[in-house]
Amino acid sequence: MPPFWRSRGFWIYVVVLLVLNYLISTIFFSGPPRITVPYTTFLQQVQNGNVKDLSAQGNSLQGDFKKSVSYGSASGTAFQTERPTFAQDNLVQELASQGVTISATPVGAGSGLTSFLLGFGPTILLVAAFIYLSRRAGGAGAGGILGSFGRSRAKLYTPDSEGKVTFADVAGIEEAKADLAEVVDFLKTPDKYRKLGATIPHGVLLVGPPGTGKTLLARAVAGETNRPFFSLAASEFVEAIVGVGAARVRDLFAQAKAAAPSIIFIDELDAIGRARSGNLSLGSNDEREQTLNQILTEMDGFTPNESVVVLAATNRAEVLDTALLRPGRFDRRVAVSPPDRAGRAAILRIHTRKVPLAPDVDLDDLAGATSGFVGADLRNVVNEAALIAARKGHEQVTRDDFQDAIERSVLGLRRPIVLSQDEKRLIAYHESGHTLMGLLVPGSDPVKKVTIVPRGMSLGSTYSQPIDDRYNYPESYLRGRIIAALGGRAAEEVAYGTITTGAESDLQQVNSIARSMVVRWGMSPKVGPLNITQPGDGQAVAVDPLSDETRRLLDEEERRIVEECHSEAIALLRENRSKLDALASALLARDTLDEKEILEVTGITPRPSRTMAPPLAEAPDGGRRPAGVAAPTAEA
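The structure assignment produced for this chain is given below.
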């Protein structure tokens, strides 16, 4: 390690000290501000009897005028000037005749100890403070004050901390809890494993979408083991000063080893754990790589580290460096997936422990209505339902309160905007098209509600809900999703013979599904059974480089699928034009229709539905919409 005086931090502090010294000297020792006037102007003021007093040091003169004098843009009574060496005037006699007080300072006066203290005293004090703080903060980091930056910022969670979390507070991710049970058992009874020669995994990586409970699961492990738990985000390691991140890693592991057996939890590991490139990296990238190298060394280096278990969480495991994932580092990867229906019901039971529920609330039924919701979403729904109930003055939270909370979570708040009758009629036909496609296309999810009340970014919405969760989708189902999404645009064409901007979000959903069918799932006869996306990338973006011919083929196949589905939607609506008109008229009269009213108006007999939860799709507001919820339309 280079000497501290050669580090960038040392010179930064030197510059800061010099600036502070200049400011202190200017403020405290420079005296009152004076205007600088020419010597001729000074002589004129002497002749006019406007000089009150005068002080001289060599040929430098300064003093005070009796009345304010202006010169240039400056004015005032305090002045300073320089007497030319060739001047041959009788200045002293004239000043004395006017009763001006005259004083003088010998040249070189103040150049001794007094001048030294006045000039460099502030710097000496600041340097002394710097040395004092360096000795107190020495140890970690580059040395000196930089050592304080090298201290870990991890928060210590102890068994006696308030808000203790255990596995009883975690639901819906039973497989992940089972995977971590072995870690918990080792930390409780390590001798049982050591006598058999077994070692606990050095690291456990929790992988899953946001909101699935990765951090909560890590806290539950700490609560179950009753061991010290050091928690921090990966971004807290990195600073602008190179080397601080590595110093914080060393300090963190030193604290954890001192409290061993203990647990370290690093959230959002991908912030510092991204794969390293072979190219030269500078600046923040160099700091991030040094931090990553230190983590690799601490987890599995020359020094045994059997008493510290490292938990980490990320939702982007595919971008992590391979050295992190090898055995001896993060030995075990635990998938924390969105909960199924039973898991959602269990999560709702946990979050409603302190919520008074009305008799009509069925948590199992609510779990079915929230397909695709993760733990954070469900917690938000329960809180929103309680807020709605309080706003309505209810003593208990009712089923309608939960339904409103789900709709608010998915569709957004109602917008108090006034629409013309013609625009409302257009929106009614648009939403009726979506609704009829959900009723007529085989295998579609049951339509539960349709409304033309503006909510969030949409002016109307069609809400469908699967009966059960499914994780595998046939081509016919995906094409049905495209047909349903195009139903609104097709209804405009059938009823008005024209199209509007209202299908923007529908077309985004259509493009996403059709593109995925071609490049991810091999559902194009011309492209064949190929997946040509980036490995580990969830987006349907083809890998470069591709030939121009292949790109053209992908575009043609995507267009073919969409056009076929659009033609089918048009044909279905023309065959059922009377149902479309009846549904639009009912919407204009009532604004909102539930499932029973929809079936009564259309006269369609409900058929058994092959319940399949659709993939997640982008909601109009840019957020993730839970599976099973049809895309709300955004009329312009």
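Interim note for the steering committee: The mean pLDDT is 77. Residues 387 and 393 are 10 Å apart (CA to CA).
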